[in-house]
Design the sequence.
């Protein structure tokens, strides 16, 4: 199946995305001088933007490709949560799975950026302790209800607290109950949470940390994928290696995918694009290799854009 053919089949597939939702807040201005108070640039404010980040950016990527998306996660009872919900609604992303926890702040990354796209500073607002008690139970309950109408489940773990052992177990149980593929964008400290996943997509640093192996060549990456799969107890592994492409290890064998980036502007959120595209492709009935190839193409496009960005079906088709 060609990438163009597969891209046209993504629309309408329902993806349940579970993870750490974030709000990316950009304050943008001009820099003409250095402060006399400290050796830092003075940014003259021009405008500000809000974008979806973390698991919300994964959801945005899936929605931009025509997927129907329900998002499960935790937010605070604050202004940032309202802005986040408004952004999700604008993108057509379902937010019924978001659980409000008044004891937390909504994860927000405030970036001060120049009009030339140079980042000056970043301030993080977050509370990253894992959800527990009534909040964890509420998230698990929403996973169980929303999974009934899903074509695939995706876990986007950023270590910001939404993915606890109980939440991960609920996602895996829901996937088994409904016979759905479950894909995970992992974090190393939670590697034991993901046993039973269909595909886990570590970057090469995460794969090295889990396997205690150095990855310098394609052969290294394949050996690490074998050990990663054994360690994580999953069916398949896709190691993303930046400019060196991707290494896929599945039940039917392995594949090396060369990077397709033509010009790299910003790698922020590239992993989000990869897993969103791959999940939609599997939901559309693609083989593991075809899904990885489409995700590789999407990654090559999105790194040419600034900040958390998305890819369209027409871009995937090369139109």
Sequence:
């Amino acid at each position: 199946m060609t990438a163009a053919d597969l891209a046209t089949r993504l629309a309408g597939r329902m993806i349940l995305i579970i993870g750490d939702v974030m709000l990316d807040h950009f304050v943008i201005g001009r820099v003409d001088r250095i402060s006399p108070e400290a050796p830092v640039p003075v940014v003259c404010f021009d405008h500000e933007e809000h974008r979806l980040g973390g698991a919300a950016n994964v959801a945005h990527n899936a929605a931009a490709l025509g997927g129907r998306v329900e998002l499960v996660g935790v937010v605070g009872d604050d202004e940032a949560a309202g802005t986040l919900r408004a952004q999700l609604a604008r993108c057509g992303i379902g937010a019924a799975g978001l659980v409000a926890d008044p004891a937390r702040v909504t994860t927000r990354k405030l970036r001060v950026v120049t009009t030339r796209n140079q980042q000056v500073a970043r301030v993080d607002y977050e509370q990253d302790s894992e959800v527990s008690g009534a909040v964890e139970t509420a998230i698990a309950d929403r996973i169980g209800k929303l999974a009934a109408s899903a074509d695939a489940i995706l876990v986007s773990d950023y270590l910001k607290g939404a993915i606890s052992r109980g939440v991960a177990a609920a996602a895996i149980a829901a996937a088994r109950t409904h016979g759905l593929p479950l894909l995970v964008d992992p974090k190393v400290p939670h590697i034991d949470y993901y046993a039973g996943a269909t595909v886990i997509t570590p970057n090469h640093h995460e794969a090295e940390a889990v396997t205690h192996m150095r990855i310098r060549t394609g052969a290294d990456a394949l050996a690490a994928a074998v050990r990663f799969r054994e360690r994580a107890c999953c069916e398949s592994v896709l190691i993303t290696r930046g400019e060196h492409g991707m290494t896929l290890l599945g039940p039917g064998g392995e594949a090396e995918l060369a990077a397709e980036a033509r010009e790299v502007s910003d790698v922020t959120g590239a992993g989000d694009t990869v897993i969103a595209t791959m999940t939609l492709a599997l939901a559309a009935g693609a083989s593991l290799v075809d899904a990885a190839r489409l995700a590789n193409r999407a990654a090559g496009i999105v790194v040419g854009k600034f900040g958390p960005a998305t890819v369209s079906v027409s871009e995937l088709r090369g139109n």
Observations:
- The chain has a mean pLDDT of 92.
- Residues 56 and 130 are 18 Å apart (CA to CA).
- DSSP finds ten helices and 13 strands in the chain.
- The first strand starts at residue 14 and ends at 19.
